[in-house]
Amino acid sequence: MTSLSLTPIAIPAEDERLRSSVRALLNEIVSSIPPQIRARSWNGFDPSFSRELGRRGLLGLTMPVEYGGGGRSAFARFVVAEEMLNRGAPVGSHWIADRQSAPLILKYGTEAQKQFYLPRICRGDAFFCIGMSEPNSGSDLASVRSRATRNGLGWVLNGQKIWTTNAHNCHYMIALVRTSGRSDDRHRGLSQVIVDLSLPGVSIRPITDLSGDAHFCEVFFDNVQLSEDALIGQEGNGWQQVTSELAFERSGPERLLSSIVLFNEWLAFLRTEKHVSAPSKRLAGKILADLIPLRAMSVAVTGMLAAGRSPNLEAALVKDLGTALEQSIPAAIADDLSARQDNAIPAELLATLTYLVQVAPSFSLRGGTREILRGIVARGLGVQ
Question: Does 249 participate in catalysis according to the annotation?
């Protein structure tokens, strides 16, 4: 049984000071973007924006200076990410690489891999996607069937990945694959490989969702020849590596703030009313009362990551609770707006609401379904 550790912690003052420069940048670049576009935020793909962040030293903040990074703690990245998401900046192009691919390569990669990939990530010149989910596997990562087989040139990769965000726009994928055994071997025989998505045999097909976006993708591997150094970490250690990686994916502010642009726009609308209704005031208070402790939990997990720990249990809990809040906000705001007698609701607020209502069901799917996360928490606490 594992004990749950979420001790409240303050973000260091030196990292808090980053907010002013980040806000100035966002005022310069993001303010003119309509809210229904900003609501896409970490799915918003804008390579020029990512390169500008790299030029200003706002990517790779946790990477060592010798690899082009900022040499700072995880708290610095938390501050930057929180500000970006709160304003709805288009961070999707660099998001995965900066959040989890770079830390994974730093922890498990060879020196040659670190020298090649990390400076490019820090400059905003290398974009990564996540190769985990597969058809008929979903969140059951241990059942993946994609396979990399050794040959004289390195590895031959065959298989398929799905729900791979922005794969059609990325340069690389870190894929969880089998390098030995069978799918019913579960955790044994899994490894991670870095796949150059421009290689022959890689084909990518975007999937259009209900909102009209097409950032989810199917990715197919047909006898893709990878070099020997495509393997990251130790062969057969993929399960340990990928669970360590998921702590970065599940615990950040993006698991709390997917609906924050809508919330901000709704609050701005309330401020224009002469008399804000009591139900609207109660709803605003409830959302803030839920958000504040969840943010404190997310900061606590960031502190654990900064200390070199792997808070898989705590990250799963934050992700489950955070996405529940994210999903509740569009429905609650829709009820509030529909209760009004007049129709004087800004068109951009309605467009933002429409988008979030359509995509909110996915919040509890990406990064691990609610059922998977609750199973992790239950097992960790010894109640399953």
Answer: yes
pLDDT tens digits along 193-214? 999 999 999 999 999 888 788 8
Amino acid making up residue 321: L
Concatenating the DSSP letter of every residue in 9-77 gives: -PPPHHHHTHHHHHHHHHHHHTTTS-HHHHTTGGG---HHHHHHHHHTT-SSTTS-GGGTS----HHHH
CA–CA separation, 333 vs 282, rounded Å? 12
Domains of the chain: 13-127 (1.10.540.10), 130-236 (2.40.110.10), 240-380 (1.20.140.10)
Backbone angles phi, psi at 285, to 5 degrees: -65, -40
The whole-angstrom separation of Cα 269 and Cα 345 is 8
Q: Please say whether the beta carbons of 98 and 121 come within 8 A.
A: yes
> What value, to the nearest 5°, has the Cα angle with vertex 60 and ends 213 and 229?
85
Which of 82, 83, 245, 249 is catalytic? The answer is 249
Q: What is the pLDDT of residues 110-163, one digit of tens each?
A: 999 999 999 999 999 999 999 999 998 766 777 899 999 999 999 999 999 998
Q: Is the separation of the CB atoms in 165 and 194 below 8 Å?
A: no
Q: Biggest alpha carbon distance in the chain?
A: 74
8 A C-beta contact, residue 326 and residue 360: yes
